[in-house]
């Protein structure tokens, strides 16, 4: 092999090694900082949406844009209830060791007519488990349509604030504020009238962000 060819191969190898090290450093940098774990249902699992257009994906992009260097893990499952989230949470806490946990559950409990006390107990158990793991819980509030009845609706909405207050957890009063109660609410939802369209998800993130951002700092 000629001297020129050996030099060329050596330079190629060094170039490849340098590129690999650069990629590795970028990957390591992206993984630094606290982990934000989202435990939710279809509202957080991008049901009916193109991947990357839901509020959790938008949150990850905003974190990166503001150079907060937090890692986002979306453990949301469409159709999940507070009971399901409660049973899944211990393994998620052990695996991901999050610093902040966003709990977005309860809507499916209402759709299934489950007892409000059970929903409240499950949310309270989840916030306690999060705190016991050394993380900060954030409870994302939800509401039900008027056809559920005024008393049920008020009691359901109140339970999220009750849990947050009792456990000294951060609270997003209503994840769908400005979406479900906005002037053009019907146009913001998919045909099932349950799941928001992609256009609604930036507003959902705007509801979460003022509560989450201080916890990341």
Count the DSSP helices: 7
By secondary-structure content and strand pairing, the structural class works out as alpha/beta
Number of domains: 2
Mean pLDDT: 89
Question: Main beta sheet: strand number and arrangement?
Answer: 5 strands, parallel
Quick one: overall form?
A: globular
Radius of gyration: 22 Å
Instruction: Tell me the CATH architecture of the largest domain.
Output: 3-Layer(aba) Sandwich
Helix coverage percent = 40-55%
Low-confidence stretches are 4-9, 11-30
- CATH topology of the largest domain: the name is Rossmann fold
How many strands appear in the DSSP assignment?
5
CATH superfamily of the largest domain: SGNH hydrolase
| Main β-sheet, spatial strand arrangement | 2-1-3-4-5
In CATH's first tier, which class of the largest domain applies? Alpha Beta
Identify the notable features of this structure and list them briefly.
217 residues; alpha/beta; Rossmann fold; 2 domains; 5-stranded parallel beta sheet; 7 helices; globular
Structure description:
The model is unreliable at 4-9 and 11-30 (pLDDT under 50). The protein is of the alpha/beta class and 217 residues long. A five-stranded parallel β-sheet has the order 2-1-3-4-5, sandwiched between helices. It has helices at residues 3-30, 55-65, 82-96, 107-111, 116-132, 150-167, 201-216; strands at 35-40, 71-74, 100-104, 136-140, 170-172. It is built from seven helices and five strands, in the order H-E-H-E-H-E-H-H-E-H-E-H. The protein folds into two domains: 1-30; 33-216, 3-Layer(aba) Sandwich (Rossmann fold), CATH 3.40.50.1110. It is globular and about 45 Å long.
